[in-house]
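Sharing in case it's useful to others searching the archive later.

Someone asked me privately for the predicted structure of FMN-linked oxidoreductase, so I'm posting the question and my answer publicly. Question first, with the sequence:
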Amino acid sequence: MSQQDIETLSAPLTLPCGVILKNRLGKAPLTELLADARTNLPNERHFNVYRRWARGGYGLIVTGNVQVDRKAMEASRNVAIERQDEKDMELYIRYAKAAKENGARALAQLNHAGRQTPRAVNPRPKAPSDVKLSLKGIPPALVSTPIAMTTEEVQQVRDRFIAAAGFCQKAGFDGVQIHAAHGYLISQFLNPHVNVSRTDQYGGPLENRMQLLKEIVEGVRSLCGPGFIVSVKLNSSDFQKHGASEQDNILVLEMLEQSLCDFVEVSGGSYEAPALLGHVKKESTKKREAYFLDFASEARKTVKKMPLMITGGFRTRSVMAEAIRSGDADLIGLGRPVCLHPEIAVALLSNPYKTFTVPSPKIDWDQVRTETPMIGNGESLWYSAQIHRLADGMEPDEEMAPIYFTMVWAPRQLVYEPATFFPTNVVWALAWPVKKAHHVFRLTLAAGVVAAATATGILVSRNRA
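And my answer, the predicted structure tokens:
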């Protein structure tokens, strides 16, 4: 049976555009947080980690967030294609080349964060409507109120996605993935709970709400031609009351199939309802490992030809192979496992003499969340730190203390970044070249900045009084 499973997962897949993937395993997109926030360009650390993943034997590698607007970043240390300067092209060429080093097809994931743009990046982000995020444990005063986009601004964003895809094609990427999941901008347009007040062609009924995604996919296909992979990442559900339902998203899948999309990666949730982090309650889904396989099975009744990539929860080779054989999935996406085991595809496609299960991390995250509620999203950050280790030429560390990454690494990474806000941006501009400095120095520096900023604020307030 193991040999049959290996043969199933090793089988090539020909996409509708004619491009062939060498096997059915894909490295799913993961936010890297590796770019210099002053430039948002790919760098040596990106090349290092993608070369490592390329050696892992995947048929497909999808990058983390590549933003189409530096004012709408998911995180200020992500890559952004905004200027599209030819002088930067060499860096993107190396980025694509690193991911394709071992015969994988490489896609750049294009995104716009919309209302999920952090306040430090943009205090007044653009969104379909002025509906604020409602985040558990976060006071509303700390969440930005978005500005509803005009029709012209929506079309400018559409054109940014299309132009960015053309830029990626010139750099050597085999295709792009349009991020329409996890509560980011395109997902916000699809969500009737967020897209609530528009009266133009991008609001109201579902046919209008999915118009932006339709125009982007068809625009990329028109610009880049038939041999370029055009993929979409789509929620199975928003897992929210009044959000986009599974039936809504099956209709979106139908539209994408008609618009010549090459495959859809199925995911789910958003910042407000984080199914993407594995917080899925459906018992049948838990038993079958894959969080979104039930949705894929239902979607297959309507969407017959367009391949589906299912990401989230897969851990055993037999379950992955059965998902392919059943026809529910055409590709298996691996996310967190590749952070700890970057060559996991090689292992899955070898040694037919034993049942293979992806090794689990040594941290019991359910217990951590129960004992230390303040950890919050520390699990996600913990995996991001493993990517950073790979980028620096180190091996993953499965025994890293999770509390460190919530109380130390996360604030440093997500708050005290260059090009965010005064005065930390000034201090970081001076400290950034000290790349080998110990994290204690950086924390001390950050603490000093906070103290100075607080003191300055008090003095200013007194003077005004």
